[in-house]
Amino acid sequence: MMRFACLAMVMILADLPAPVAAKGASIFCCENARGQRVCGDVLPQACYGRAYRRVAADGTVVERIAAPMSADERAEAARLERRQELEQARRRSQMLQDRALLDTYRSMDDIDQREARAVADIDNDLRRAYAREADIKKGSERLQEEAKLHVGGELPGDLAQAIRDNQSELSAQQTVIEAKLKNIEAVRARFARDRERYRLLTEKPGG
Fold first, then answer.
1. Domain residues for 84?
2. Is residue 93 situated within a structural domain?
3. What pairs with residue 172 in β-bridges?
4. How many domains does the chain have?
5. 8 A C-beta contact, residue 35 and residue 51
6. Beta strands per DSSP E along 6-117
7. Residue 129 falls inside a structural domain
8. Residue 111: inside a domain, yes or no?
9. What torsion, rounded to 10 degrees, do the Cα atoms 167, 169, 172, 176 define?
10. 57 and 141 share a domain?
């Protein structure tokens, strides 16, 4: 095998000027634009921007250097690198979240109990909000009855203002109720996610 390697090196060196061959040092070779082999003790100009290899005196390829990437290849490499960075960041974030989840809950029952308490707190606020809404509606009914006494005439300024204030307060209270209902949905969804993730983290393989 060494004999053939030496023979190959002799053939390569035979293509070089005598001073280069005499040095016996490694040389640089590539295929030029026409597919012809070009070699030199320094990188030949024909090899600029092309893949090349460094060959030792015994014909062994010491190093292979790929051709520089094109603009499109560099852009694609940058996109891949960015994607890998984002994926690594996502995994680190998930690891931190998982650690926090396991530190927060002792068991699935613990998750259920915490969810029940959180929903109960919002339900208490919601009951008060509904009660306040009922009071506002009763006030609206009284104001409407009073307004009926002025049929055909202009409502007194203070009564008209009271009706406007009542409607504004009713609208605000209904907004509060809607927010509380959405809050309950969000709490249930969050605990459902926590419950599922906790199950995945603590479930024994094959269990």
1. 70-104
2. yes
3. none
4. 3
5. no
6. 27-31, 37-40, 52-55, 61-65
7. yes
8. yes
9. -130
10. no
pLDDT for the residue 24: 55
pLDDT digits (tens, 9 = 90+) for 122-147: 999 999 999 999 999 999 999 998 88
Q: Per residue of the chain (207 residues), give pLDDT as tens.
A: 333 333 344 444 444 444 444 445 789 999 998 999 999 999 999 999 899 999 998 889 999 999 988 888 889 999 999 999 999 999 999 999 999 999 999 999 999 999 999 999 999 999 999 999 999 999 999 999 888 888 777 888 898 899 999 999 999 999 999 999 999 999 999 999 999 999 999 987 765
Residues 12 and 34 both lie in one domain:
yes
The answer to whether residues 98 and 19 belong to one domain is no
- Tokens encoding 58: 């015994």
Q: Closest Cα partner for 161 from 146, 182, 173?
A: 146
Taking CA 64 as the corner, what is the angle to CA 45 and CA 44, rounded to the nearest 5 degrees? Answer: 10
E strand spans, the chain: 27-31, 37-40, 52-55, 61-65
pTM: 0.59
Based on the fold, state whether residues 144 and 171 are members of the same structural domain: yes
3-state secondary structure (DSSP) of residue 33 = coil
DSSP letter, residue 206: T
Are residue 75 and residue 56 in the same domain, yes or no? no
Single-letter amino acid, residue 158: D
* Identity of the amino acid at 126: L
